[in-house]
Amino acid sequence: MQILQSKQMAEHMKRKEHIGRRNARCLNRMGSYIVEAAICMPLFLIAILAMSSIILMYACIEDANYITSMELRRASIEAAFGDTSTVVPVRINKRIRNSQSLVEGMPLEEFIYRGTGGGVDELIAIRYRMLMHNHNPFGLASRAEYSLSCVTRAYVGRIRDNRPMSDAEMAGSSEPVFVFPNRGERYHNDSCMVLHASYVSAILSPSLKKEYGGCRICRSRNAGTGTLVYIFPEDGDDYHLQGCPVLERHYIELDKSVAIERG
Q: Which residues pair with 178 in a beta bridge?
């Protein structure tokens, strides 16, 4: 009987010891979870705060760009009526500071009003440094700087130095004339016989040299007596060799005022 009781007590003790070891493992595992959570949770909260600061600053930058572009657009329209160079930076600064609490300062770095750059005139440009501060408990990613610049052109048109068009040119009633670009000292009307004259061949002789001069283009003056040359009997001052461009009667059309201006 005593032997049976001893065996039962031994089994009970083993069972109790096994349960104790299992409970200890569970407690150790739970303790490790608690320790990991205690370590990771603050890091997770810090990351969330830092990301929220960055997102808020990006939103502030987008709003500042929009306000600046709208104010420069307003200044470009007002430029046609008066000089607003003194109030444009003030208006931009005031609107951004009132719209965004994160903006701590906006030092102006450059402002151009109706200047010239890159071959473009009447430019309106601004550049400033925007200082931002987000007040979070840990102070992580709480400060940032952003260089904002914007440029536009004043809506004032452009004064050109070109000669103003005459009434005839405006009405489209200018008179067309014709000139010989290779050799020509006069302009001709459409009805002029020079434009439609035909040439004939002739044998160069002393009498022909007295009546006509040598062509400066084909240098027919150097031709000897008996050479085959070409003349315009109706309206011509020179004799020409075969292949001379003058024989092709190549002329172009110009406006009369342009022809007079070119001499």
A: 188, 253
Q: Alpha helices of 79-150 — where are they, by DSSP H?
A: 88-99
Do 45 and 121 sit in the same domain of this protein? yes
Q: What DSSP designation does 158 have?
A: -
Q: Are residues 100 and 187 in the same domain?
A: no
What pLDDT does residue 82 have?
87
Give the chain's domain count: 2
Q: What is the pTM of this model?
A: 0.47
CA angle 162, 167, 173 (to 5 degrees): 110
Helices (H), 100-228: 167-171, 193-196, 206-211
User: Which helix (DSSP H) or strand (DSSP E) does residue 108 occupy?
Assistant: strand 108-117
Strand partners for 110: 127
State which residues form the domain around 88.
38-153
pLDDT tens-digit series, residues 144-153: 899 999 999 9
User: Cβ distance 228 to 242 under 8 Å?
Assistant: yes
